[in-house]
């Protein structure tokens, strides 16, 4: 069968190119051919990008959800074997209310999930694959990498109150250092720890400079072990990317819900596109919440770039 | 033009203050007196393009990437849940979001509180955090007449000096949050124009502390 790729839309071509990349890297194709009960998503609403879910009743009277997310479904469907590595990729439509819209939209995304015996090398490989995915969209891209274990350690040192910690995560995502300073001045959070958190959020310079400063911050915060692990993964990815390391940035404003996400998390930008096109990271917390012993990491790329 | 950094500025008094701050910080040299009715001003030497927009739209321009950086009130960020970096509190344009009511107002917890406001999302979040059921009356113009004419029980609005409230026989019942001008950046631009955005942030921070 001969296929003329020109008849495909840009979105379809991108999805195809990504799937080809993932197949070359040993990922098998997963098709989400059925719908999940609403309960799966409502029980993990904070994991979803948008809390709004389209629902319908199936012929047996069960309340179902119209695909707000793919990861939850994949995790649920896979056998929990912490000794085996399951590498899956998908191209699916999800239905959400995006931030920029006031009603539900069909959003096309292609992504990968790596579940089971996830090693440090696998984490580096998936992070590298995220960077390679951005290369397919445009050569002018940046993958911004953070580590939630380090961020979490600094936030818990700043306050023991879980509501304040949630607020600090939100402020970290906004790089809102002034608001953190005000909290410290009001005595609501630990002054010394908040200053360390502020320096973490405002790290600047080349990757080498940032890593050096990060090492100092982690030493001060008593989490040099977390730094070593992060620096090791970052070094592996950076080495494989080669000369153009400006495609990688360390920035701790990349956050996620700490109930679900841990360790390395990242997001990807392409020059000229105002919003992130790629999001991902480790989500061992979700696995544990669903009663699974396996570890997991994954990411998704929005392929409906024509819309931007 | 790609090497230019575009700046969304709110029109009016706040925008004038921001331009003065940029001038004081040595970032750009735009004379406010020469701006007139222009909506787009360029400083060729500084490679900056200022876009003058309605105060409520400034964060939208930055969030959607039409501007790389900008200045807006904190009220706008709360109301719109803008997905931007909030890099600096500039410390001016200070006021507060408040609940105000007629002087003889007594809350009746048995029924929803009728709240007139331009800030529906912020009001909903504020009263939800207190567990108070409300009925939002969304208005676009002057809010003060609403409780006087029986349209609402209270108003949820920005209070600067309190003189407008006083003239309309209203008083502040509760402060929801403080407001001031914030320097914001688009999250994508922050990565691609990082050095320049960080340079401007540093200069603005230094100049703002001297005000």
Q: What is the CATH architecture descriptor of chain A?
A: 2-Layer Sandwich
Mean pLDDT of chain B: 92
Question: What's the rounded overall pLDDT mean of chain A?
Answer: 93
Low-confidence runs of chain B (pLDDT<50, min 5 residues)? none
Q: Which term fits the overall shape of chain B?
A: elongated
| Count of DSSP-assigned helices of chain A | 11
Strand content of chain B: 25-35%
**How much is the radius of gyration of chain A in Å?**
20 Å
Helix content of chain B: 25-40%
Give the biggest beta sheet of chain B: 6 strands, mixed
Number of strands of chain B: 11
> Helix/strand-derived class of chain B?
alpha/beta
Largest sheet of chain A: 8 strands, mixed
By oligomeric state, this entry counts as heterodimer
General form of chain A: globular
Kindly describe this structure.
The complex is a heterodimer of chains A (308) and B (211). Chain A has 308 residues and is an alpha+beta fold. Chain A has one domain: Bira Bifunctional Protein, Domain 2 (BirA Bifunctional Protein, domain 2, 2-Layer Sandwich). In chain A, the strands form two sheets. Chain A has an eight-stranded mixed β-sheet with strand order 1-5-6-11-10-9-7-8, with helices on both faces. Chain A has a three-stranded antiparallel β-sheet with strand order 2-4-3. In chain A, a hairpin with a 7-residue loop joins strand 9 and strand 10. The two termini of chain A are 33 Å apart. The mean pLDDT of chain A is 93. With 211 residues, chain B is α/β, with parallel strands linked by helices. Chain B is built from eight helices and eleven strands. The radius of gyration of chain B is 19 Å and the shape is elongated. Helices cover 31% and strands 31% of the residues of chain B. The chains are: A alpha+beta (308), B alpha/beta (211). At the A-B interface, helix 7 of A face strand 5 and helix 7 of B.
């Amino acid at each position: 069968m001969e296929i003329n790729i020109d008849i495909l839309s840009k979105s379809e071509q991108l999805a195809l190119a990504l799937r080809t990349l993932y197949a070359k890297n040993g990922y098998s194709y997963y098709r989400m051919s059925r719908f999940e009960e609403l309960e799966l998503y409502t029980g993990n609403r904070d994991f979803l990008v948008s809390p709004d879910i389209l629902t319908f009743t199936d012929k047996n009277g069960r309340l179902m959800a119209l695909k707000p997310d793919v990861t939850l479904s994949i995790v649920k469907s896979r056998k929990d074997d912490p000794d085996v590595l399951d590498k899956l990729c998908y191209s699916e439509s999800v239905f959400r209310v995006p931030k920029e819209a006031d009603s539900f939209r069909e959003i096309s995304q292609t992504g990968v999930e790596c579940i089971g015996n996830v090693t440090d090398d696998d984490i580096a490989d998936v992070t590298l694959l995220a960077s390679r995915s951005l290369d397919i969209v445009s050569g002018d891209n940046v993958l911004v990498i953070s580590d939630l274990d380090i961020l979490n350690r600094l936030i818990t040192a700043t306050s023991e109150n879980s509501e304040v910690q949630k607020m600090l995560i939100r402020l970290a995502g906004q790089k809102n250092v002034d608001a953190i300073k005000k909290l410290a001045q009001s005595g609501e959070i630990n002054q010394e720890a908040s200053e360390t958190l502020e320096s973490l959020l405002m790290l600047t310079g080349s990757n080498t400079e940032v890593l050096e400063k990060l090492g100092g911050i982690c030493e001060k915060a008593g989490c040099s072990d977390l730094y070593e692990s992060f620096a090791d993964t970052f070094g592996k990815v950076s080495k494989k990317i080669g000369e153009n390391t400006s495609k990688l940035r360390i920035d701790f404003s990349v956050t996620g819900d700490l109930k679900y996400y841990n360790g390395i998390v990242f997001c990807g930008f392409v020059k000229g596109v105002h919003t992130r096109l790629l999001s991902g990271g480790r989500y061992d917390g979700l696995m544990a919440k669903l009663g699974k012993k396996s570890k997991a990491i994954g990411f998704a790329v929005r392929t409906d770039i024509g819309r931007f | 033009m790609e090497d230019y950094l575009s700046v969304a500025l709110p029109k009016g008094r706040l925008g004038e203050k921001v331009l003065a701050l940029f001038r004081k910080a040595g970032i750009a040299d735009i004379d406010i007196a020469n701006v007139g009715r222009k909506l787009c001003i360029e400083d060729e030497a500084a490679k900056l393009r200022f876009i003058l927009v309605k105060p409520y739209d400034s964060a939208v321009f930055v969030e959607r990437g039409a501007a790389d950086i900008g200045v807006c009130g904190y009220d706008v960020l709360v109301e719109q849940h803008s997905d931007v970096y909030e890099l600096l509190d500039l410390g001016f344009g200070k006021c507060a979001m408040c609940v105000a009511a007629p002087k003889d107002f007594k809350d009746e917890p048995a029924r929803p509180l009728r709240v007139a406001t331009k800030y529906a999302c912020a009001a909903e979040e504020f009263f939800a955090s207190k567990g108070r059921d409300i009925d939002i009356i969304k208005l676009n113009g002057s809010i003060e007449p609403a409780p006087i004419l029986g349209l609402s029980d209270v108003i949820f609005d920005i209070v600067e000096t309190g003189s407008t409230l006083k003239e309309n026989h209203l008083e502040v019942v509760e402060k929801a949050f403080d407001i001031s001008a914030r320097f914001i950046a688009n999250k994508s631009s922050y990565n691609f124009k990082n050095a320049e955005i960080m340079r401007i942030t540093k200069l603005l921070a230094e100049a703002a502390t001297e005000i």
